[in-house]
Design brief:
The chain has 505 residues and is of the alpha+beta class. The protein is built from 16 helices and 16 strands.
Length: 505
């Protein structure tokens, strides 16, 4: 609202209070009118008094308040991101990682989630956004300590918390591996060229094995030489895990890529139950004939007993069938393009992937065996599971195997959200210490995800972290009293939602 002086042709000036809050000029009140200038000024003053009375506010001395604001801003001593510590720091403590005796472990773990980067850039980030002065050499020295004295305790804490939240003994474990490559040319004792899951076969790499529980909570990890066959990584980790926590019975769930006859024999000899992905195309002829005689319907499963202790479960899914066909067609198109460009030779004819569809025509020409391609449609939609766990139904076997996607998700989160690579370390102990920090960070991430599910939250873990990164804390020095006043700034609805959800302040 404002006061308007309206000049009339008669020489009288009317004083009105005008409201334009709706976009139109509306006369809220006519204060009065007069030809005398002094009386008009008095009416204007009365108009402003009427406005003040209506809105219930006193007049503001903008100049004075501006100066006060400037003095206040000049006294701010520190602005830091506080949301991450409020949210993830609490979860870190609830897991039990505050038992790790080092002031560096926590900021290194949380920064892995908040802003993953090299250790040098991490020190810069912690200084800029958390007012933490940490020398990068101090981090390197601590990583040596973490490797030598604390990595086992980190895994123990993670295991204890996982066992607590699951509310039962951990009798079923899931295992998988991934590869982490390095931007270097020369190999060393650990970083070696091997089969890369990232397609970086020209780069030395390491193999990372990860053991998780139902729900995808991390239990244990180990790193291996980059050229180690992934099937030979499983038993060492599982055996160490079983000894450490004194398990009598464990059921191991793993993908077919990790399994060979020697591995299966070793599992059986050591008394393990297992649920494994089965390569059904490589089964003996009498079994493949049985598989194709089933004519399974959507979701249907059949059991074939390979021997008195080993069951092969075959399941059909139309969704999987469509995916299998799509993958084969895509692979076929890629082969056709390579043949057209002249890139394929006799050396490319092998059993790797879709190269199995290649054949030689005469002595020089490579072509596609369309008959072999089309005959493979009988396998579309079929999936095999091999187990020696007689007390589980075929439905339970399939359900438990499907939990393996959680470990795949763990690797995706570690590689992309936590940016486990690139790894900027050369020494083996520092590489393993880096993996340990990522392992702890993933545990914190998973617990955040779990708590969001329990609270039936409408946001994901990633969204919660991004919101937390926008919550700042301001510290102000009061020179007259030598006091420091601080306040966490919550300004928008997302921040309010997260704060109320976790009772952060």
């Amino acid at each position: 609202m404002f006061v308007r002086k309206k000049y009339n042709p008669s020489g009288v000036t009317s004083v009105q209070v005008i409201d334009k809050s709706t976009g139109k000029y509306v006369v809220k009140k006519t204060i009065g009118s007069s030809k005398d200038e002094n009386e008009v000024n008095q009416l204007v003053s009365e108009g402003y008094q009427w406005i003040q009375k209506q809105i219930g506010q006193e007049a503001i001395d903008f100049t004075n308040h501006y100066k006060q604001a400037q003095v206040f801003l000049d006294q701010i001593s520190e602005i830091t991101i506080s949301g991450v510590e409020l949210l993830l720091g609490r979860i870190y403590n609830e897991i039990g990682f505050d038992q790790i005796d080092s002031p560096l472990f926590k900021p290194l773990v949380l920064s892995r989630i908040e802003s993953p980067s090299s250790k040098l850039k991490t020190t810069d980030y912690l200084f800029k956004y958390h007012s933490m002065r940490i020398d990068v050499e101090a981090i390197y020295r601590y990583m040596d300590k973490l490797y030598n004295k604390q990595k086992e305790k980190v895994q123990q804490i993670s295991y204890n918390h996982t066992r607590e939240i699951l509310g039962e003994d951990i009798s079923m474990v899931f295992y998988d591996v991934t590869t982490l490559y390095f931007e270097i040319e020369k190999e060393d004792e650990l970083r070696k060229n091997g089969f890369s899951k990232d397609g970086k076969h020209q780069h030395p790499q390491i193999v990372l094995g990860l053991l998780v529980s139902v729900g995808g909570y991390p239990l244990a990890y180990e790193i291996f030489e980059g050229n180690k066959y992934e099937g030979n990584t499983m038993l060492p980790i599982i055996e160490a895990f079983k000894r450490k926590y004194k398990f009598k019975n464990l059921t191991v769930v793993a993908d077919s890529g990790l399994i060979n006859n020697e591995n299966i024999k070793s599992l059986e000899e050591r008394g393990y139950k297992y649920i494994l992905g089965a390569r059904i195309k490589n089964q003996p002829v009498n079994i493949t004939k049985q598989i194709h005689s089933f004519n399974l319907n959507e979701g249907e499963s059949k059991v074939i007993w390979k021997d008195v202790n080993t069951a092969l479960i075959i399941n059909y899914s139309s969704k999987r069938a469509r995916k299998d066909l799509s993958n084969r067609q895509r692979g076929l198109k890629r082969l056709e393009k390579q043949i057209a460009s002249g890139k394929l030779t006799k050396s490319n004819i092998n059993k790797r992937g879709y190269n199995k569809y290649l054949k030689m025509e005469g002595q020089m020409k490579v072509s596609i065996d369309k008959e072999k391609f089309e005959s493979d449609d009988k396998w579309d939609g079929l999936k095999g599971y091999q187990t020696n766990h007689k007390s589980l139904s075929k439905e339970e076997v399939i359900e438990n195997y499907q939990h393996l996607w959680r470990i795949e998700k763990a690797f995706r989160i570690s590689k992309h959200d936590l940016k486990i690579r690139p790894i900027y370390h050369r020494l083996e102990k520092r590489i393993e210490a880096h993996i340990c920090l990522c392992f702890a960070a993933y545990k914190v991430y998973k617990e955040l995800e779990r708590q969001l599910n329990v609270k039936e939250a409408t946001i994901s873990a990633e969204k919660a972290i991004n919101i937390a990164k926008t919550i700042y804390n301001i510290k102000v020095n009061i020179p007259e009293t030598n006091q420091v006043v601080e306040k966490t700034i919550i300004t928008n609805e997302e921040q309010k939602y997260l704060t109320e959800l976790f009772k952060l302040i």
